[in-house]
């Protein structure tokens, strides 16, 4: 199995930035994709961004495109989510996940981190 440890959440003002980190215990053939999802109170979990360990191919939700950047450091088994120009509607618990291939559906990811709270004040 893969263990994921997230960090970097916190409270920021609108327009500010945060950088989330997700450290994976191991990379395997069946866990090539690393994704970020978020869930706000009263809302369904939604896809944010994902990246492939092997190819570096990225995918973003339309709501964060141009503001968020996902990247990976293969030597450290760590994926980052750089979040700029944050808006109050970005407030949510952000979850790191890993699965076989990059995709938009939460069901496609096998292992999940504990989540980290991101709060953006107006």
Describe what you observe in this structure.
This protein is mainly β. The chain contains no helices and 11 strands. Strands 2, 4, 5, 6, 9, 10 and 11 form a 7-stranded mixed sheet that branches. A hairpin with a 5-residue loop joins β5 and β6 (58-60).
Short description:
With 122 residues, the protein is mainly β. Helix content is 0%, strand content 51%. Strands 2, 4, 5, 6, 9, 10 and 11 form a seven-stranded mixed sheet that branches.
* SS strand fraction: over 45%
Shape: globular
By DSSP, the count of extended strands is: 11
Taken in chain order, the helices and strands follow as: EEEEEEEEEEE
Q: Any chance you could write out the topology, listing elements then pairs?
A:
Blueprint: E1 4-7, E2 10-13, E3 18-24, E4 33-39, E5 46-52, E6 58-60, E7 68-73, E8 78-83, E9 92-99, E10 109-112, E11 116-121
Parallel strand pairs: 2-11
Antiparallel strand pairs: 1-3, 3-8, 4-5, 4-9, 5-6, 7-8, 9-10, 9-11
What are the main properties of this structure?
single chain; 122 residues; mainly beta; 7-stranded mixed β-sheet; 4-stranded antiparallel β-sheet; 0% helix
């Amino acid at each position: 199995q893969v263990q994921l440890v997230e960090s970097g959440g916190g409270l920021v003002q609108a327009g500010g930035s945060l950088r989330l980190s997700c450290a994976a215990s191991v990379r395997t053939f069946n866990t090539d994709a690393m994704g970020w999802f978020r869930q706000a109170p009263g809302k369904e979990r939604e896809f944010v961004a994902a990246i492939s360990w092997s190819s570096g191919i990225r995918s973003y939700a339309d709501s964060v495109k141009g503001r968020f950047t996902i990247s990976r450091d293969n030597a450290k088994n760590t994926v980052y989510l750089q979040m700029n120009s944050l808006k109050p509607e970005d407030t949510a618990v952000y979850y790191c996940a890993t699965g076989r291939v990059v995709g938009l559906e939460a069901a496609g990811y096998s292992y999940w981190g504990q989540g980290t709270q991101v709060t953006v004040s107006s």
